[in-house]
């Protein structure tokens, strides 16, 4: 499609619709699902995931490149674009950055965010896992480098209100530097299984309980999330209003700490009390596993 529109060298995401669950793939012609609103703009989108948002609204999350080359080199970024009519047409003007890393001060080059995978979590937000080299410092990896030669941590980010904005990233795996192709499926409502390829036949499986989606659509109405679970030590809590209090207990019921929220996403370091503890929020208790 890019070549047909005079943009040889660009890479767009194409989509074809199906007539029902078992029909032919001829609901409409092949369309460009992900490209810039400016058809002549150079883009390189790939690694696409399609997520249904309800009411014929769908989102495609892709790996792409930054708007302009930083330090003379294009870095990878994660983008999203939506359709409001089941994929017939796409909101190119609303193509958004899901996550874009910062710049290395010495080289002026941007660190990379790449190889995303997206799922709808508990019928609520869209969650995305992706690779990034920004934790390592020094010269950013070349986006064209072999994947087993790139330094990688795995992160997670999710949508906020109305699927139009994105929250802060959180760690999924930071235990080394070799990883690729994170996968993610929802095995039960608000329970995610994350897979990570560590090369040479080595894979990792991580289970996360996304404790949330209580009532309402906004933090003020009661929407709440706690992640990751299990955790290496830190947990994140979103959906608390400023001034709300949460408490941490051991399994005997002894209170270990309290925390007053400032609003937004809170980061807490769990006390050293063994593998399990309880978090109380609004009179509800959540059991957390510390790995």
Structure explained in plain terms:
- The protein is mainly beta and 291 residues long.
- It has no helices and 21 strands.
- The strands form six sheets. It has a four-stranded antiparallel beta sheet, with no helix packed on it. A four-stranded antiparallel beta sheet has the order 7-8-9-10, with no helix packed on it.
- The radius of gyration is 20 Å and the shape is globular.
- The N and C termini lie far apart (47 Å).
- The relative contact order is 0.09.
- About 4% of the residues have low confidence.
Overview in brief:
The protein is an all-beta fold.
Topology:
Blueprint: E1 13-15, E2 31-34, E3 46-54, E4 57-65, E5 76-83, E6 96-99, E7 113-120, E8 126-132, E9 153-158, E10 170-173, E11 180-188, E12 191-197, E13 203-209, E14 211-212, E15 225-227, E16 234-240, E17 245-249, E18 255-260, E19 264-269, E20 276-281, E21 284-289
The coarse silhouette is globular
Q: Tell me what portion of residues adopts beta-strand conformation.
A: 35-45%
Largest sheet: 4 strands, antiparallel
Order of H and E elements: EEEEEEEEEEEEEEEEEEEEE
Helix content: under 10%
Q: Biggest sheet: strands side by side, in what order?
A: 3-4-5-6
Got a strand count?
21
Mean of the pLDDT scores?
Answer: 86
* Count of alpha/pi helices: 0
Could you tell me the radius of gyration in angstroms? 20 Å
Features:
single chain; 291 residues; mainly beta; 4-stranded antiparallel β-sheet
